[in-house]
Write a structure and sequence with these properties.
Two copies of one chain form a homodimer. Chain A is α/β, with parallel strands linked by helices. Chain A folds into three domains: 9-52, no CATH class; 61-165 and 299-328, Rossmann fold, CATH 3.40.50.2300; 167-298 and 332-338, Response regulator (Rossmann fold, 3-Layer(aba) Sandwich). Helices cover 44% and strands 16% of the residues of chain A. Chain A has helices spanning 9-16, 20-27, 35-48, 54-61, 77-92, 106-118, 136-143, 167-180, 196-211, 228-240, 253-265, 299-315, 339-343; strands at residues 66-71, 96-101, 123-126, 148-151, 161-165, 186-190, 220-223, 247-250, 275-279, 293-296, 325-328, 331-333. In chain A, the strands form two sheets. Chain A has a six-stranded parallel beta sheet, sandwiched between helices. A six-stranded mixed beta sheet of chain A has the order 7-6-8-9-10-12, with helices on both faces. Chain A is elongated and about 90 Å long. The structure holds a DNA duplex.
DNA sequence: TTGTAAGCGTTATCAG
DNA sequence: CTGATAACGCTTACAA
């Protein structure tokens, strides 16, 4: 049982007593072959359930039709949805996707890029680990002429296509939405200031307030640690302060959830007492509505766009490369009813 | 810019004016080589940043060190966590993981298995689409001597290693937990009866009730459609009935969430009026506590176990194959406080 | 200790 | 129209 050896072009040639080159031609080739021969070959091929060996092809053609993807963690909705998008496009264009996790470790990311080049992947899509602040491994890829696309966590040090989310617009629109609903006291709770996403979101928040001439005194951004306890304390402080905001723009899902929890504990109702809009990618967050309005990242689109850019890059390798950064828009999942509408 | 051609063993041999076989030996080989030569070769290899071409190796050794994974949807927490586990083990044992989605389509699943064999993957891990009721494509793999492991959605028609969750025990334990908390009126809401998970969970539920001698009249399993509206109606009917149960065992996450929603609308408090335990894999479900106690599937372990079994299979290919089904236990995430404790 | 040559499965080139 | 041959990068008998 078991065929022991997968059928090759050679088997067909032996069976038909013709040369392998004829078989090869019959299978792919153009016109330079007698119709009957071709038919015969195809028939036998089908019969034997022949499948071309893509490894051999890869060796010959010096391309693998494989795209390598490096992400921090697959089991993270953002990453997995993005990969789904990548896979979708790759599949439709005849490419395969190989996945690697960096587990947020720089070292592992480096190893992964090495494995990828050893595998001779045709291109790489990466979202770097949060430990990564050196980029030699990526430069290495580029130097080896392996096309690279970065998404989400990108860096200015590398010159290549990048796909990111328009954080500025997302924060701006969310804040504007709150203002239009009558809020004038909106706090922005966010994480470490040095991250680009933090800065962009903050800028969007501030610009919206400025546009609507909200006094600078009511413009408050609170940076808090990603550590659960510290985050909790910071949030508690905000809600306990005498001038409690009527709305919150939460910069990351975890903050949004923490706000929900704290407010519940304080017996404040959401959104009647405090409205919350938070960045959140979890499909389950639907069930939180109307407590929480969410800013969803277009993860699937990020994946699709990244794959498209990469494959284009792969297929016109020689061409003059102009790299650009694509900004995709977020989607706001607004709860049906809002504070002020309700009070009417 | 760009090296044009990745450095090969040949480049090293030319550089050193020795034969390729010597280089090869220096790089892998045992003792049959002069120390100095080896050092020299290694040095040059490092200098040129040589990386063995795994495509060539694959062709020669007739193995790719690639594991193919087919899942319905990557962007599904169950699948992506499982893949994470697979990747983890694969990585540690020198394998790569290539991902395919079936999008719950039988046709696409078949195509995927074909692509996988064309790629000459060393083995395949699959969770079949819910459309899949023919298994020729899987038999085909086995016939081609490509090891196969199934997880979660398995089928009896295929004889191979399988990794599933112990649904029976999960349902039994959850039900027992509710009983120990004083509930005697527990309803089981579940989906289509023909699925194996449904049957196993139902059996677990029933056996727990029997063990504690709950009268048969209070043993009620309601099957409802997976369609949102119909599900909603079925659930509403249960809670509106004069003999409303005091606890619910929800067979799938969607049902659990639907219960939460309906109960909220009816102004019934959870878990004071009705306690709910539901199967749910979403990491976000933590925020639902204490409303919902969850039965979590050990997704990561499923992936790890599947990969281990597969790689073992790959590496002792000839050996006598005894296939078995591994049942992994679920984890109950019980809310801290429960109905009856609270009422005290 | 080192080199030569064959072979893994294909395709392309060049003769016939 | 068809067949022999080289080549892709590497390993491994077998010779030297």
């Amino acid at each position: 049982m078991g065929e022991q050896h997968l059928v090759t072009i050679k088997d067909i040639s032996r069976r038909l007593k013709i040369s392998v080159s004829t078989v090869s031609r019959a299978l792919r080739g153009g016109t330079e072959i007698k119709k009957e021969t071709r038919e015969l070959v195809r028939q036998v091929a089908a019969e034997l359930n022949y499948q071309p060996n893509s490894i051999a092809l890869s060796l010959k053609e010096k391309r693998t039709k494989v795209i390598g993807v490096i992400v921090p963690e697959i089991a993270n909705n953002f990453c997995s949805s993005t990969i789904a998008g990548i896979e979708e496009i790759a599949y439709s264009r005849g490419y395969y996707v190989t996945i690697f996790q960096s587990h947020e470790r720089y070292g592992r990311e480096v190893t992964n890029t090495q494995l990828l080049t050893a595998r001779r992947v045709d291109g790489v899509i990466i979202s770097v680990s949060n430990e990564t602040n050196r980029y030699d491994h990526l430069l290495n890829l580029i130097q080896k002429d392996i096309p690279l696309v970065m998404f989400d966590r990108v860096c200015s040090e590398i010159n290549t296509h990048k796909v990111v989310v328009n954080d500025y617009a997302a924060a701006f629109n969310a804040t504007e939405h709150l203002i239009k609903q009558g809020h004038t006291d909106i706090a922005h709770i966010t994480i470490a200031d040095f991250l680009s996403i933090t800065q962009n979101r903050k800028k969007g928040y501030e610009d919206a307030l400025k546009k609507y001439k909200i006094p600078a005194g009511k413009r408050r951004t609170v940076h808090c640690s990603f550590d659960a306890k510290e985050m909790d304390r910071a949030i508690r402080a905000i809600f306990n302060s005498p001038n409690r905001p009527t709305a919150i723009l939460a910069s990351v899902e975890r903050i949004a959830i923490a706000c929900l929890t704290v407010l519940k504990e304080m017996n404040l109702s959401i959104p009647e007492d405090v409205a919350i809009i938070g960045f959140s990618d979890n499909p389950l967050n639907n069930i939180l509505k109307p407590s929480l309005s969410c800013i969803r990242q277009p993860t699937y689109e990020i994946g699709k766009k990244s794959a498209e850019l990469l494959i284009d890059l792969i297929e016109q390798k020689g061409a003059g490369k102009k790299f650009h950064t694509v900004q995709l828009d977020t989607v706001m999942d607004i709860m049906e009813s809002s504070v002020f509408e309700r009070k009417n």
